[in-house]
Specification:
Layout lengths: L1 H13 L7 E5 L11 E7 L17 E7 L2 E7 L10 H4 L1 H9 L3 E10 L9 E8 L29 H13 L4 E8 L8 H9 L4 E3 L3 H9 L3 E11 L10 H25 L1
Parallel strand pairs: 1-4, 1-5, 5-9, 6-7, 7-8
Antiparallel strand pairs: 2-3, 3-4, 5-8, 6-9
Helix pairs in contact: 1-3, 4-7
């Protein structure tokens, strides 16, 4: 808690008189939304006290403050993952800090493997629900700070239904192909075997990735409204599975960036 407060106070001094309403987390290959932000401050993670460092290629590692579609936002250009060696508390540290800075809504994006046979590469999937059972740690384990949230937070609606509906309407008005489904988070960093993909699909997952769920758990713990959007970067159908290459995953994510940016920008404007 002391680290969270120290980081919060540091950022307040760096960006005085600016209270963000909305937090945004950009996943692998999804940094182009920054081009739509009227930037007020850009702070590298490495210069922020207690902040982890993003070590994954395609995660630039900067905290962006600015205006997007008329709203004050703070954006993590790059996130942290458990497989990088961080604890779940460190993985979700930025979400805690953003809450203290003032956000009431969190929008997260990620690159994910498609488990649903109806999905195509570069499809966008609105996350309706998630499965966290395969994560080795939970960011809420340990001492609970009542000032942040309840010991046993409700997870019946981790993704706000109004935000989901608004995003669907934006996609429809702009003739964008959109999917909806359940996202399952695993630790990684290895990709899954054919047997694992089959199991995850049987459990009801439509897409699989290595992020997002810890951030949503922490956000909901603090009463933040959440919205999640996945880009399907590879197809994880056991019968037709092909070897995944990181370059192709990033390319598929970047192909979907214009549509994702349109939806997120539109959603921000309606909040």
């Amino acid at each position: 808690m002391n680290e969270i407060l120290e980081t919060y106070r540091y950022l307040q001094k760096q960006v005085p008189n600016f209270t963000p309403e909305i937090g945004i987390v950009l996943g692998t290959g999804l940094g182009a939304l920054i081009d739509n932000i009227e930037i007020i401050a850009k702070i590298p993670y490495g210069s922020i006290p207690n902040f982890p460092i993003a070590t994954v290629e395609a995660h630039k590692g900067k905290l962006i403050f600015g205006m997007l579609n008329g709203k004050k936002v703070v954006c993590m250009q790059g996130r942290f993952h458990f497989y990088e060696g961080y604890s779940m508390q460190k993985v979700t540290f930025g979400i805690r800090v953003m809450k203290l800075l003032g956000i009431g809504t969190l929008i997260v994006s990620n690159a994910a493997g498609g488990l649903n046979p109806a999905f195509e590469i570069s499809d966008l999937m609105i996350i309706q629900d998630h499965i966290s059972l395969f994560l080795p740690q939970n960011p809420l384990i340990g001492h609970n700070f009542d000032s942040l949230g309840d010991r046993f937070p409700d997870m019946s609606e981790p993704y706000h239904p109004d935000l989901i509906q608004d995003a669907e309407n934006i996609a429809s008005k702009n003739n964008l192909r959109i999917q909806k489904g359940v996202y399952v988070s695993v630790s990684g960093p290895q990709l899954e075997t054919k047997a694992e993909y089959k199991l995850l699909r049987q459990l009801g997952a439509d897409a699989v990735g290595m992020s997002t769920v810890p951030e949503i758990i922490v956000a909901r713990h603090m009463g933040i409204n959440c919205f999640g959007l996945s880009v399907i970067t590879d197809l994880c159908i056991p019968e037709t599975l092909q070897k995944a290459e990181f370059e192709n995953i990033v390319a598929a994510a970047r192909a979907a960036e214009p549509s994702m940016s349109l939806i997120i920008s539109g959603l921000v404007g309606q909040i």
